[in-house]
Write a structure and sequence with these properties.
This protein is mainly alpha-helical and 223 residues long. The protein has one domain: Up-down Bundle (Four Helix Bundle (Hemerythrin (Met), subunit A)). Helix content is 85%, strand content 0%. The chain has 9 helices and no strands. The radius of gyration is 19 Å and the shape is globular. The two termini are 18 Å apart. 25% of the residues are buried.
Length: 223
């Protein structure tokens, strides 16, 4: 009976993950289509697509980044759902950001502008490597193989690195005189402060305790 409940829960999680990834892919693809259709010059179309797919994926990233601390500080039905489906949201972000990489690559090819070598390029490559590793290990089997501690280390380093890279891009744009990116930088900093604030008080509600027991049960079943 317990195994049947676990199987049903796993199926629902899989369906939610597929749905969220499909929505993320559709959203990013629509941005590309609108960008290309709205710009007669192909180079400008891909530039627009690269910019707006990045902003779209940043919104999804924020949901992943603040889901747990938001729930710890101000629990609600929405935050409970976000925590329960945080892996699915993470995979949706990976989907959208991969499409952003495609748009960015097309812009570089169409404009014959190769990325500049330097800290930002290296940071971007590392961010995508970590994103790929996180996406590939966003499953219970990987938790079992890597061990809970190593799995958490990978995902903690990865999510903070990606956060830092987003902020670094915005700060560079602001330093170049583009004040449009000030709100993005402020939101990124606010998200970090939210996580810091949540660490200072970690209430364990009945939902949290149930969620943790479910996660331990699912991890044990993969063995």
């Amino acid at each position: 009976m317990i195994n049947e409940r676990v199987i049903m829960a796993s199926r629902r999680t899989t369906m939610t993950t597929v749905a969220l990834c499909a929505v993320a892919a559709a959203g990013a693809t629509c941005i590309i289509a609108v960008s290309i259709a709205g710009h007669p010059v192909l180079t400008e179309g891909w530039r627009h697509a690269a910019r707006y797919t990045a902003r779209f994926s940043f919104l999804i990233f924020l949901a992943v980044f603040v889901a747990r601390p938001w729930h710890q500080l101000w629990p609600s039905q929405a935050t409970r759902w976000a925590v329960l489906h945080r892996r699915a949201l993470g995979l949706a972000f990976a989907t959208a950001h991969l499409i952003h990489l495609y748009a960015l690559t097309r812009f570089r090819v169409e404009s014959a502008q190769m990325p500049r070598r330097g800290v930002q390029l290296v940071g971007g490559v590392v961010a995508y490597v970590l994103l790929a590793a996180m996406a590939a290990t966003s499953n219970d089997a990987s938790v079992h193989v890597l061990g809970v501690r190593n799995w958490k280390r990978l995902h903690t380093v990865g999510i903070y690195w990606i956060w830092f890279f987003f902020l670094e891009v915005y700060v560079v744009r602001i330093a170049a005189g583009s004040l449009f990116f000030v709100p993005f930088a402020l939101v990124a900093v606010a998200a970090l402060l939210l996580r810091v604030g949540a660490r200072s008080r970690v209430p364990v509600s009945g939902f949290d305790a149930t969620w943790r027991r479910t996660q331990r049960s699912r991890t044990a079943d993969t063995g």
